Amino acid sequence: MYRAPVSEIAFTLKEVAGLADVQAHADHTEVSDDLVLAILEEAGRFAAEEIAPLNTVGDRQGTRLEDGAVTTAPGWKEAYRAWAEGGWNSLTGPEEHGGQALPMMLQAAALEMWNSGSMAFAIGPTLTAGAVEALEKHASPYLQETYLPKLVSGEWMGTMNLTEPQAGSDLNALRARAERAEDGTYRIFGQKIFITYGEHDLTDNIIHLVLARLPDAPAGTRGISLFLVPKFFVNPDGSLGECNDVRCAGVEHKLGIHGSPTCTMAFGDGDGAVGWLIGEENRGLACMFTMMNNARLAVGIQGLGVAERATQQALAYALDRRQGRAPGADGAGMSPIADHPDIKRSLLSMQAWTQVARAICYANAHAIDMARLAGEAERRHWNERAAMLTPIAKALSTDIGVEVASLGVQIHGGMGYVEETGAAQHFRDARIAPIYEGTNGIQSIDLVLRKLPLSGGEHLQGLLDELAAVAAAARDDGREGFEPMGVALQRALADLRGAADWMLRAQAEGRQAEALAGATPFLRLMGLTLGAALLAKGALASDADESAGAHRIVLARYFAASHLGETGALAAQIATASDVVLAYRAEA
Amino acid sequence: MYRAPVSEIAFTLKEVAGLADVQAHADHTEVSDDLVLAILEEAGRFAAEEIAPLNTVGDRQGTRLEDGAVTTAPGWKEAYRAWAEGGWNSLTGPEEHGGQALPMMLQAAALEMWNSGSMAFAIGPTLTAGAVEALEKHASPYLQETYLPKLVSGEWMGTMNLTEPQAGSDLNALRARAERAEDGTYRIFGQKIFITYGEHDLTDNIIHLVLARLPDAPAGTRGISLFLVPKFFVNPDGSLGECNDVRCAGVEHKLGIHGSPTCTMAFGDGDGAVGWLIGEENRGLACMFTMMNNARLAVGIQGLGVAERATQQALAYALDRRQGRAPGADGAGMSPIADHPDIKRSLLSMQAWTQVARAICYANAHAIDMARLAGEAERRHWNERAAMLTPIAKALSTDIGVEVASLGVQIHGGMGYVEETGAAQHFRDARIAPIYEGTNGIQSIDLVLRKLPLSGGEHLQGLLDELAAVAAAARDDGREGFEPMGVALQRALADLRGAADWMLRAQAEGRQAEALAGATPFLRLMGLTLGAALLAKGALASDADESAGAHRIVLARYFAASHLGETGALAAQIATASDVVLAYRAEA
């Protein structure tokens, strides 16, 4: 059972993440509050009624590979087609190719709900969205006209083919090769692994985006090109022709997201898979990064979606399950476990963490929208904001997904460990998100080495000043519990400023290895502080006399009084543990 | 691949947990250092060569229920029988029934290795050990003579039947009923769930210990009696007779430990299962607690065992897998990921946490041994020490099991998410341990409400003084890195003293609900501090010029500089978050 938290999502978009800035822009005058609510409600209905019921069968039956063809679980194909026909694949797609060109913020909100419905279902369209964006920005008019309309509508799906056995996090090591053909196309040879929805029966065609090297390409990542390799060729009239030289050679047996086929793809077992170049030769990585940045936010939203679903389920269980007597309980019977203080604490943590992930992911989407809409003067600011928030949205939200799902299992007790309740599925599903689209370690390194130094560190200062204003407003608000919340936030901000200074100084002084050693605790420190500030921002905009508002204030107070306290230890750890870390030799 | 860390285990027993105190006792003059090492090496060999290879097949094939009979995975029966024939089931068993009466500390060490080999395998004998202890302490001579020799040898296995659908953490709600028969036996009726190894083919007989109520029993836990219900009756000559009225009605489909059958047991579908009373009527809970206390330490050791195995596997992978170039790398190729600072940090965390779990579990076993061996004057001290350490050993070590296994998955990257590497199995297996034998929330409540106040809080003070002596010794040691370690430990101890005072005051002032709200962070705070002190104790006893000693010092320094810093936030959280927690209403 999943109920889309539409009003909380709308509140977060509007009062926390800044949807009004986007609505105020001339490109989005049609995005009224009414339209936003209508879209959220309809998306929530589809997620709850059509997708959520598929989550269990996707997990239990998984996918089946037979003679190179992958069959998805019963009901998945019908649901996907209904979803695409409902226009849900085209929310942000370009208008000239049939898309609705709505803000990324709305897409983020809808994506949360698809992921709450079923993470294994929602990940497919995420990859299509990446392919759409790469083609829109980098592909030739021929490729755009041939492929974009059906990718935008969802009639076809896209994939992203990076990983090879020897090249996971390190794309320098890619070996798949491409040869120039006389007709201007290319022939692709090589094996790719971990290809999500690399083969399936949801759509009639699958459009693979594949990284490979030309024979005369420079070594390393400057010698990688991006190719479009359709499963079936497309005839000039748009109908499908023969099958390309690409096949699914295997499907992984995974810990979770069983509904989503993770394929080993063989390109060019015969004469070579026919591919079309996207962008310029040897510039494939830039194109791929277009896909990857938004994909990182989308993966963060997976963590959010699973966290929300796990929280709803644990809450329902805790209100229903009775054991023992809670302090101060009336009557004679056993109390709902939700009344026991220790379980309350766990439920509060689940709800607060989930809201932290939501606020950060939506703020990230806001920055992406603003970067697209901004004039020359502001574009850099918003691009930097999006760049800075992306690794945090990805890493923190996916850690949150695992932590919250684990708390959900725990609240279920023994029932959480048997698969029939579904609590364990969330825990298994969520565990991939900290790994793919750049491990969370890599996100942390990206934040520390590439994002903190943006504009010489000034972008970071501006962001911290914004958070400091929230902290001061909370401290001075006057309502019950706000002052300690503001003070806790100010303390956390001081920790964050100190750690950021340390990080920038370490890099300026050539002690890059020390910065790397502290990257993971730094991302968590920054994410905690940012998250607490966004919860406080929401609390400031909430009415304590109204039930949802009072709940938001409780969450913000709880988070500031509990989890936020970790920032001091994280800041200290960054400064003091790095020499021990670097001195460590694993082989000893 | 698992290699038993025999020398590290021996060091921890001896230099950290106090094995010499036990060896010095007249009852254990035979337990020489040579004997200890010989037992550890032989147990390690069996764990690595005979048990560890069964872990994967146990996970993949699980167990099969057919016509009420459960078949374990291929090879399991043979391995179990070889294990029992090797005398491994009888290490601590009473001599008069064929046991070796060795110290619990050796049993704890061996149990770590069995669990590293396969947690699903090791859990069966853990339950037998609990049954042996309950029978030894509470059963009639007839029951002891009839059942103990074969339970001690491992020829038969024991089970523990507490849980019913409506009674998990709350035994007040038990409904299984017992009726007196004319011959002095009883007839048992009722269904029990989550019965580990409730039915299987490893042994010819299974001895169920079952909690049930007599018709005239008082309500609540003072009306529960404990019965012995054999699967097959035992003839006067020791041969097996007919089957009792007990059957396995189902086997759970679980997240992990698939090799271990978790059964629904139906007692008395016919005329009633014949049971023999253990101890006195209505005093069953006291008998059951005999089993449960040691079972709690055994579950803590499951967390330890899985953590050690996951760490070994992640380390091997990180040394083998090459990606990117580490800072300062020589040569041209890719570096082992173990050389990247962020991965070093993760490996250090895995190793340090594992050693924390080991030190605490062994210290707990030491206290149990000392309580058994102590004269009148010291018995209370050691009983209190064992009582205080048990909830920490159980809860912290099992949290460590999950955290370390999760880091292990993460270090494997995408390969960690596919089941073939086995990293995901550790993550799945480990997840039950924080739940069963009293959830970790219940352990925290036990620590705060029942253990902190022992001897009016004086036992705690004595323990803290011991830890303070370690901190002072570290601060004054003079070797590189020891001073900050000692200072960090002193700070943590101050946090712990403050939080413990707060907890005892809250209870003295009738604010029990507040104490409950802070119980989970308190247990972690105490566990972190205790763990860091034990690592420091090991470091103080180590030679920095010797490779293993240098490694121990690095782990202790790293843990003090990183994870230990969390204590300040935990102490603050206990004092400041409890009012928000209590004000929270889940139903809102």
From TrEMBL, chains A, B:
Listed GO MF terms: flavin adenine dinucleotide binding; oxidoreductase activity, acting on the CH-CH group of donors
Enzyme class: oxidoreductase
Reactions catalysed: 3-(methylsulfanyl)propanoyl-CoA + oxidized [electron-transfer flavoprotein] + H(+) = 3-(methylsulfanyl)acryloyl-CoA + reduced [electron-transfer flavoprotein]
Domain of life the protein comes from: Bacteria
Residue ranges annotated for the Acetyl-CoA dehydrogenase-like C-terminal domain, each copy included: 464-583
Record domain Acyl-CoA dehydrogenase/oxidase C-terminal: where: 282-444
Record has Flavoprotein as a keyword: yes
PANTHER family: ACYL-COA DEHYDROGENASE (PTHR42803), BROAD-SPECIFICITY LINEAR ACYL-COA DEHYDROGENASE FADE5 (PTHR42803:SF1)
Protein family: Belongs to the acyl-CoA dehydrogenase family.
Protein's name according to its UniProt entry: 3-methylmercaptopropionyl-CoA dehydrogenase
